[in-house]
Amino acid sequence: MSKTRQILMVLMLLSTTAASYAREAKSPLEGKWFGRLKVGTTNLRIGLQISREGEGYRVDFYSLDQTPAAIPMEKVRYADNILSFEKLPLQISYSGTLIEDGGKLKGIFVQGVPLSLLLERVDEFPELVRPQTPMPPFSYASKDVEYTNRESGLKLAGTLTVPREGRRLTAAILITGSGRQDRDETILEHKPFWVIADYLTRNGVAVLRVDDRGVGGSEAGDGNETSLEFATDVEAAVKFLRSHPRMNPKDIWLVGHSEGGYIAALVAARDRKIGGIVSLAGTAVPGKDVLIEQNRLLRAAQGVPKATLDWFMPLYSELVDIAIVEEDLEQARLRSKTALDRRLSSAPVALRLAGGPVLTQQVDAIAKQLQGEWMRFFLVHDPANDWSETRCPVLAVFGKKDLQVPAFQNAPVLEEILSSRAGKPYSILKYESLNHMFQHAETGSISEYGKIEETISEEVLSQMSLFILGKKR
């Protein structure tokens, strides 16, 4: 045997030995695990990233169809091939046994109710396909910008996309929905505001999309803001665009999604020089009514039985009423507990068997969720008053599979209001198969948002562009 061949054989042996040692040294838990959690009629994709942390383990939990963010688990234990962990603030727990030579974890996941969850080892979590996300080269100019809301003193940051040709351009400001959103309104790797900005700008409309307060490049407020304060951020954006040398100051449009829709109405009611509004699933009835109907629809979509809903929804409505009148959180929690106790005897048998403590925890969580300045304003504010004060063209778009801002609840009210504005153009579009994100959907459930590859319907994008440019009025 040649010397070279001997050296190669030694290297191969060393390599094999090292690889075997690495396999033996590595914990049987470390790595990525993936499974599907059946919740009612939907299947949520679940991922675990497990790594060594000191003498124990760290578990990062992913609900891949709901958020790309990792949720670090607590009280992680591994002994006798059994892994367990929990997250008390989210009422999550899991206990699973390592089976099939370490290839699978079989166990029970609990968040309110126990559900079977089988996890398998994977090299990577399944990627989310997003074909509409804009890709270069771009036919327009894109520039990051900053300006200050003089009323709050906060710096706001965003991106302005501008057609390469033309002056006195029509411009649009994109207004995000509830919660802290970045300038692209990113959710589950969908970037609907970037898709809208790209489409409109390629069709001749300049677009400004902005990070919400405390997100990305925008400065944070005190955390107690309501939609009224967020409206001043939009007014600052209007002022910024009106001072831009290439924009037509009389043709600045507001494009709002969900909460952003009624913020657009609020701003336009105070500023009669706004060029127009595109409301995407914007509300037209008080927030209390929206929230109650939203909860009923979402819980039904999750498979909650009708008998349970018939019992629960009057209780939920009472909890909302308590939140509206009771500013003190502890008092709201006590009154909510009293409301539950009064109704518990009439609960379906399955709920009573689940036990009072479980229901008490859920009612307490709802009581906390309904507190806060933003929520209290949302519950009592009636956007119908703002819509009636607008004088600009309005395009309102609804999806009939929207379970968050139901079309059947909001579109007729908005139709009645807009039709009473003599001589003011408007159009209300309702799409049979679109959800709250304006994706073509099967059920409209939130759990579908991440599974659907489409970010936003091309027809909705087209109708927006045509209406803003005056071709469909």
Describe this structure in words.
The protein is of the alpha/beta class and 473 residues long. The chain folds into 3 domains: 25-122, Calycin beta-barrel core domain (Lipocalin, Beta Barrel); 140-285 and 382-468, 3-Layer(aba) Sandwich (Rossmann fold); 288-376. 36% of the residues lie in helices and 27% in strands. The protein is built from 13 helices and 17 strands. The strands form 2 sheets. Strands 4-3-2-1-9-8-7-6-5 form a 9-stranded antiparallel β-sheet, with no helix packed on it. Strands 10-11-13-12-14-15-16-17 form an 8-stranded mixed β-sheet, with helices on both faces. Strand 7 and strand 8 form a beta hairpin. Helix 3 (227-242) crosses helix 4 (259-270), helix 5 runs antiparallel to helix 6 (306-325) and helix 5 crosses helix 10 (373-380). It starts with a helix and ends in a 5-residue tail after the last helix. Mean pLDDT is 90; it is low at 1-25.
Note the topology.
Blueprint: H1 3-25, E1 31-39, E2 42-53, E3 56-63, E4 71-72, E5 74-79, E6 82-87, E7 92-99, E8 104-111, E9 113-122, E10 140-149, E11 154-163, E12 169-175, H2 192-202, E13 206-210, H3 227-242, E14 247-257, H4 259-270, E15 276-280, H5 287-301, H6 306-325, H7 329-344, H8 349-354, H9 356-369, H10 373-380, H11 384-389, E16 394-399, H12 407-419, E17 426-431, H13 458-468
Parallel strand pairs: 12-13, 12-14, 14-15, 15-16, 16-17
Antiparallel strand pairs: 1-2, 1-9, 2-3, 3-4, 5-6, 6-7, 7-8, 8-9, 10-11, 11-13
Helix pairs in contact: 3-4, 5-6, 5-10, 6-7, 7-9
